[in-house]
């Protein structure tokens, strides 16, 4: 009987040890999970359920020292601060950072065609008019085409558009800074949380006897 008890105890110990090793392995595996692929897939997916966020701002070009203008079908980066053609309406298109950019004055969308040329279009439903906002380490923003991966919105020092195939993320030509127009505030109001507390029981005054 003593031998059976010892043998049983030994088996139980090994089972517990095996369970412990499996638990540690699962914990380490969960710690090393790379969620970047999941986030990237969610960013590319269309979001037709959530409310679209609409923002109004200007995009200051690092190279030209001016702002992007949507002049109908023509695009440039020669706008002064407060220029009516430099005021852009930016609408979120997906769960992540994909946006559609429209000139407030002309109602034309900023788009990139199959040749990599920046053009304005009256209809922004095409994927050529969708861009991925990428915040860079230097705090500038780059806009990569959602349809043509690796092609960016970029301008020369004279404010002329660069073709997508000739752009790279590390080039200053594709670096922009968001600026609100003079005297303008953000269209999208910040979300306010409402704190709900338990209703306190109302105590009625008692009549003195």
Automatic annotation (TrEMBL):
GO biological process: angiogenesis; cell population proliferation; chondrocyte development; endochondral ossification; ERK1 and ERK2 cascade; fibroblast growth factor receptor signaling pathway; intramembranous ossification; lung development
Sample GO molecular function, one term: growth factor activity
InterPro entries per UniProt: Fibroblast_GF_fam, IL1/FGF
Gene Ontology cellular-component terms listed: extracellular region; nucleolus
Residues spanning the membrane: 12-29
Pfam families: FGF
PROSITE patterns per UniProt: HBGF_FGF
UniProt keyword annotation of Transmembrane helix present: yes
Compartmental location: Secreted
Primary subcellular site in the record, as a coarse category: secreted
UniProt xrefs under SUPFAM superfamilies: Cytokine (SSF50353)
Keywords, alphabetical: Growth factor, Membrane, Secreted, Signal, Transmembrane, Transmembrane helix
The keyword Membrane is assigned to this record: yes
Family: Belongs to the heparin-binding growth factors family.
Protein name (database record): Fibroblast growth factor
Origin organism lineage: Eukaryota, Metazoa, Chordata, Craniata, Vertebrata
Gene (UniProt): FGF18
């Amino acid at each position: 009987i003593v031998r059976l008890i010892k043998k049983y105890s030994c088996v139980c110990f090994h089972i517990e040890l095996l369970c412990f090793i499996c638990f540690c392995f699962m914990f380490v595996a969960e710690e090393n999970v790379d969620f970047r692929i999941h986030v990237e897939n969610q960013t590319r997916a269309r979001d037709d359920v959530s409310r679209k966020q609409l923002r109004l701002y200007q995009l200051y070009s690092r190279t030209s020292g001016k702002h992007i203008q949507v002049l109908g079908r023509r695009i440039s980066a020669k706008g002064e601060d407060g220029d009516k053609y430099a005021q852009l309406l930016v609408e979120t298109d997906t769960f992540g950072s994909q946006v559609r950019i429209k000139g407030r004055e002309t109602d034309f969308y900023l788009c990139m065609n199959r040749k990599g040329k920046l053009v304005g279009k009256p209809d922004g439903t095409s994927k050529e008019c969708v861009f991925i906002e990428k915040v860079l380490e230097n705090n500038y923003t780059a806009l990569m085409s959602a349809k043509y991966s690796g092609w960016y919105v970029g301008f020369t020092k004279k404010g002329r558009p660069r073709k997508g195939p000739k752009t790279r993320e590390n080039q200053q030509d594709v670096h922009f800074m968001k600026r609100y127009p003079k005297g303008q505030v953000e269209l999208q109001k910040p979300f306010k949380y409402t704190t709900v507390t338990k209703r306190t029981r109302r105590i009625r005054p008692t009549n003195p006897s």
